[in-house]
């Protein structure tokens, strides 16, 4: 992700003006991709105005090209440069990031290839330390004999600084080139600046650079110096952007200060359409083309034309070789363009749309999918088979089926709900047509007349039931307008003799069916089967699925065998229970329960035998009280109490699991988790408390005391107290301790949670040597295969410990340099200890 994109939200609102401080976090880092926009040169810019709480308005700058500068780690450049500019404390040319290119004059004459510039960033300075370039195919580090201190950090209003820098380049048997410069910085203002990219709280830094080039040509024995014009940089710096919000660069030419370059921070300039569009566009149709624009575009000004966003349409093959402008809008921000498809545009399915800007000129990406430009649809309907049928049959109507078309069928001019396919199965008489729609319009077909002739029919019940020994009357309702009908009843396939009426009495169970014949037309209609059932009276047997004595809040399931299509009536102590209508009932109150069953035919059983249920009361819900804070350090505890109730037993729980032996009203909580308590009375009924969370914080990591010269130090975060032979040292509350007395030293580190841990003792023995007499280096660090330990005194015994302090390896060095292999070791932080010092090693 681009650094500028990451911080985009920081500049979306205008902050109140406040004096800020610029520190090393605001300088470039490895991995940054910093974007700047070059503005059109304007000799009338008022860049000298400055001061405290100043307001600078450069919102009228005219945007030009954008350029991006990438910064990366030193190790990613070249192994020779990685060694020359290694970021280790004893390297006078240490660097921690680099960028492509160099600002060496005459570099084209020197045949420089693959150039880099190396920088070092710390809490106190940001400086250029040297270059790297291939000369005749050989990578050569070009270190500055005096580093170019770009800024002394932190920067605050009123700061001034001066630095001198120089370097030399020699091409054997050809020439020597040298450069010296003096850089002067003055922080001469603070306030709010406005540019085309927004408004920002800034510090204003004025930098002057006086430089001189020296050239000696060996083959001519000729040398000369060239004084450069005075270069001045006016830079407005803000938090979090790592690139000047605005930089105006000038050169002094013939005594006049002339602006040579204007650049400002900006978002990446992009332009894209934000679809969707419909699957088909029509000639003459209007549409909206939404687009998203980032970065700055120019407004109208003196000799400046306002930016115009134009929507362009490709040809039918998607080519923008000769695009058609279909709409435009004068704007500098994201928006929507009202566009019109030309009425004479040929049909095709490969069209695309894009948006371009005029100032600065930029071509956006197209909509990403092919678009179809078509015409209004055709609508044709035909019947598949006869259009006149008897009831019970259907007529299939078919429209011309075309992909991308939608359909709506009508009958007698009214839309049919849900009839939206190219086929329609018709079961009712009427005049049918279809409306066919695509994105270019709707066409209605001619009508097709469908006739459905009715059949003679009666409405009959689906079933009938009676109790044993009782007849049930089954009747078919004669529909109006039907005459001259003959009725034939069958039961289980056998004709019931002597019955020619619309009703019949049945005493036997079976399948009853009626055949109706229209004597005039001879058309017959057979009703659906009527299920006739003859049932015995149901029997209500009541059973309980569990104990009928239980605690309040519980229940017991009472049930009677299910009877098909029956209804159930439940009673408590002889009174009906409202809503209890199933074969099972959850009884949760004391009393005697009974049930009766009514079958589907209305036959009702006798009440069942009663079942007595007894509900016992629960103990009162307990509440847990803590006698102290519920967040404690490892090794500590908090006392939890609950009020006992007479006749109850106590059981404590942690995260839902019972705690063995925790059966009293008091509990010492020593572990993290949710604590609760359950009380149980003599009847076995329980009541549970709500949970109380206890948090036992982890102990901090045991600190490891390390030594550099006569200074002991630890790297673990927190607050500190140092001890000598177990006695606290007054005022020794920092991470470092300068010592001059022999003995065992320990340190107590307290973390942000207030939890403390004591280090292992480290014995300090003074040798009479100054702290600077012992130095130790470790490179590379981090390491993946091996690292080299270097000292200015013999190393002797060496031990390697992992992050937990566990001894990993012991080695013996015979001199002042020793190679340690880390291949195959798990990644992490390790400690290397010698007889004199301790250093940290990061294994990748």
Task: Give structural notes.
With 844 residues, this protein is mainly β. The model is unreliable at 1-16 and 767-773 (pLDDT under 50). A hairpin with a 5-residue loop joins strand 69 and strand 70. Strands 1, 2, 3, 4, 5, 6, 7, 8, 9, 10, 11, 12, 13 and 14 form a 14-stranded mixed beta sheet that branches. Strands 26, 28, 29, 31, 32 and 33 form a 6-stranded mixed beta sheet that branches. Strands 34, 36, 37, 39, 40 and 41 form a 6-stranded mixed beta sheet that branches. It starts with a helix and ends with a strand.
Name the overall outline. flat
Rg over CA atoms: 47 Å
Helix content: under 10%
> Approximately how much beta-strand content do the residues carry?
over 45%
The termini sit apart by 23 Å
Question: What is the number of strand segments?
Answer: 73
What is the SS-derived class?
mainly beta
Q: Characterize the largest beta sheet: strand count, sense, and whether it forms a barrel.
A: 14 strands, mixed
Count up the helices: 2
Q: What does the average pLDDT come to?
A: 85
Poorly predicted regions are 1-16, 767-773
């Amino acid at each position: 992700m681009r650094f500028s994109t990451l911080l985009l939200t920081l500049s979306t609102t205008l902050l109140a003006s406040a004096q800020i401080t610029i520190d090393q976090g605001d300088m470039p880092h490895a991995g940054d991709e910093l974007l700047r926009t070059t503005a059109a040169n304007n000799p009338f810019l008022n860049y000298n105005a400055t001061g405290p709480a100043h307001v600078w308005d450069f919102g009228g700058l005219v945007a030009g090209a954008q350029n991006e500068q990438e910064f990366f780690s030193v190790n990613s450049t070249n192994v020779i440069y990685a060694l020359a500019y290694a970021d280790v404390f004893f390297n006078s040319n240490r660097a921690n990031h680099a960028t492509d290119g160099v600002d060496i004059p005459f570099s084209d004459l020197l045949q420089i290839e693959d150039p880099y510039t190396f920088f070092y960033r710390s809490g106190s300075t940001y400086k250029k330390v040297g270059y790297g370039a291939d000369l005749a195919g050989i990578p050569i580090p070009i270190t500055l004999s005096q580093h170019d201190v770009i800024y002394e950090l932190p920067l605050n209003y009123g700061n001034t600084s001066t630095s001198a820098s120089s370097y030399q380049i020699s091409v054997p048997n050809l020439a020597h080139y040298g450069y010296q410069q003096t850089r002067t910085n003055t922080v001469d203002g603070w306030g709010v600046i406005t540019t085309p990219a927004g408004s920002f709280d800034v510090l204003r830094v004025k930098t002057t650079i006086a430089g001189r080039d020296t050239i000696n040509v060996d083959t001519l024995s000729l040398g000369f110096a060239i004084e450069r014009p005075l270069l001045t940089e006016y830079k407005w710096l803000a938090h979090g952007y790592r690139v000047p919000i605005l930089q105006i660069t000038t050169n002094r030419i013939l005594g006049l200060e002339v602006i040579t370059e204007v650049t400002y921070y900006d978002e990446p300039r992009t332009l894209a359409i934000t679809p969707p569009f419909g699957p088909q566009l029509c000639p003459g149709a209007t549409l909206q083309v939404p687009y998203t624009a980032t970065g700055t575009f120019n407004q109208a000004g003196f000799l400046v034309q306002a930016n115009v966003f134009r929507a362009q349409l490709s040809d039918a093959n998607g080519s923008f070789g000769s695009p058609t402008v279909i709409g435009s809008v004068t704007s500098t921000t994201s928006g929507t363009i009202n566009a019109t498809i030309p009425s004479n545009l040929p049909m095709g399915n490969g069209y695309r749309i894009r948006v371009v800007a005029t100032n600065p000129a930029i071509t956006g990406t197209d909509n990403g999918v092919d678009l179809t430009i078509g015409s209004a649809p055709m609508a044709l309907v035909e019947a598949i088979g006869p259009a006149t049928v008897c009831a019970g049959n259907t007529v299939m109507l078919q429209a011309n089926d075309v992909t991308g078309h939608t359909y709506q069928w009508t009958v007698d001019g009214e839309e049919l709900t849900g009839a939206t396919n190219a086929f329609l199965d018709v079961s009712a008489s009427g005049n049918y047509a279809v409306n066919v729609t695509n994105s270019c319009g709707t066409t209605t077909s001619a009508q097709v007349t469908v006739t459905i002739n009715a059949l003679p029919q009666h409405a009959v019940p689906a079933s009938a039931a009676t109790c044993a020994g009782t007849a049930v009357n089954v009747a078919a309702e004669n529909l109006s307008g039907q005459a001259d009908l003959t009725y034939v009843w069958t039961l289980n396939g056998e004709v019931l003799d002597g019955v020619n009426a619309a009703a019949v009495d049945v005493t036997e169970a079976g399948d009853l069916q009626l055949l109706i014949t229209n004597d005039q037309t001879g058309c017959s209609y057979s009703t659906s089967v009527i299920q006739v059932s003859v049932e015995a009276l149901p029997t209500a047997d009541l059973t309980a699925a569990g104990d009928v004595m239980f605690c309040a809040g519980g229940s017991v399931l009472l049930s009677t065998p299910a009877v098909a299509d029956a209804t159930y009536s439940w009673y408590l102590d002889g009174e009906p229970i409202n809503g209890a209508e199933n074969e099972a009932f959850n009884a949760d109150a004391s009393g005697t329960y009974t049930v009766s069953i009514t079958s589907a035919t209305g036959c009702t059983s006798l009440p069942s035998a009663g079942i007595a249920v007894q509900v016992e009361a629960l103990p009162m819900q307990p509440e847990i009280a803590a006698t102290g804070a519920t967040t404690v350090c490892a090794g500590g505890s908090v006392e939890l109490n609950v009020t006992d109730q007479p006749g109850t037993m106590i059981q404590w729980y942690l995260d839902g699991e019972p705690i063995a032996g925790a059966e009293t009203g008091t509990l010492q909580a020593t572990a993290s988790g949710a604590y609760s308590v359950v009380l149980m009375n003599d009847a076995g009924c329980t009541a549970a408390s709500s949970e109380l969370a206890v948090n036992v914080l982890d102990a901090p990591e045991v600190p490891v005391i390390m030594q550099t010269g006569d200074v002991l130090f630890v790297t673990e975060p927190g607050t500190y107290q140092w001890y000598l032979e177990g006695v606290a040292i007054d005022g020794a509350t920092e991470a470092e301790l300068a010592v001059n007395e022999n003995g065992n030293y320990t340190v107590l580190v307290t973390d942000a949670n207030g939890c403390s841990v004591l280090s292992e003792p480290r014995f300090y023995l003074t040798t009479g040597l100054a702290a600077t007499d012992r130095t130790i280096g470790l490179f590379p660090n981090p390491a993946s295969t091996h690292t080299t330990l270097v000292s200015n005194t013999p190393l002797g015994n060496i031990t390697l410990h992992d992050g937990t302090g566990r001894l990993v390896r012991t080695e013996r060095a015979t001199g002042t340099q020793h190679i340690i292999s880390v291949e195959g070791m798990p990644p992490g932080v390790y400690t290397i200890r010698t007889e004199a010092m301790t250093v940290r090693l990061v294994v990748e």
